[in-house]
UniProtKB/TrEMBL annotation:
Pfam families: DED (PF01335). This is CASP8 and FADD-like apoptosis regulator b. PANTHER family: CASP8 AND FADD LIKE APOPTOSIS REGULATOR, DED DOMAIN-CONTAINING PROTEIN. Residues 1-69, 87-164 form the DED domain. Keywords: Apoptosis, Repeat. Gene3D superfamilies: Death Domain, Fas. SMART domains: DED (SM00031). It comes from Sinocyclocheilus grahami. Belongs to the peptidase C14A family. GO terms for biological process: apoptotic process; regulation of apoptotic process. InterPro entries: DEATH-like_dom_sf, DED_dom. Transmembrane segments: none annotated. PROSITE patterns: DED. GO terms for cellular component: cytoplasm.
Length: 187
């Protein structure tokens, strides 16, 4: 079924799902996005519920219905007992969806000092996120830099999402439930 799904996804959607799965080599997606995603999915040996969650997170409800024979509310019901996809990664993927080309240019300009040694072409916010993660400048616990940069490029709406995540995450940290343990697996 994952082969049927990858055939229906755009390059950006393939990239988003791979990021949600924890992939840090998104720059290889430009040559064969579907093949790379298929490789990531095979390496994970994921279960059916995880696949449904990934499709839900990228908001492809048509694929839930037509390929996986379910719907949004059924999957949300299954996930009430716990998520497998990192909330941090979902947040970064959602912020990426809200960034346009001008925002990306402004952001990369602000981050040029942190990324001065990189010889990569950054096509999306997720590319920036992955490179900052590799440099240990961004993680689920270390988000101040990206929040500050988003405020500097006048995207206070996105900075508020990050701030809200940080405040919510601090509430959950003392209580390491099974749900939280599952989330940390994919960060």
């Amino acid at each position: 079924q994952s082969a049927d799904i990858t055939g229906e996804l755009s390059t950006d959607e393939c990239k988003r799902i791979s990021y949600l799965c924890g992939a840090l080599d998104l720059d290889k997606f430009s040559t064969d996005p579907r093949g790379m995603l298929q490789s990531v999915l095979c390496q994970m040996r994921m279960d059916y519920v995880f696949l449904m969650e990934l499709i839900l997170k990228i908001k492809r409800y048509d694929l839930l219905r037509e390929v996986l024979s379910t719907n949004k509310s059924a999957v949300e019901g299954l996930l009430k007992n716990g998520h497998s996809v990192s909330e941090y990664r979902v947040l970064m993927a959602d912020v990426s969806e809200d960034m346009d080309t001008e925002n990306l240019k402004s952001l990369t300009f602000l981050l040029r000092a942190e990324m001065r040694f990189l010889n990569v072409y950054l096509q999306s916010f997720l590319d920036v996120v992955v490179e900052l993660e590799k440099l240990d400048q961004l993680s689920s616990e270390k988000m101040d830099l990206i929040e500050h940069c988003l405020r500097s490029i006048h995207r206070a709406d996105l900075a508020k999402k990050i701030s809200h995540y940080q405040q919510t995450d601090l509430i959950w940290l003392p209580c390491l439930t099974t749900w939280h343990f599952k989330c940390f697996i994919f960060q």
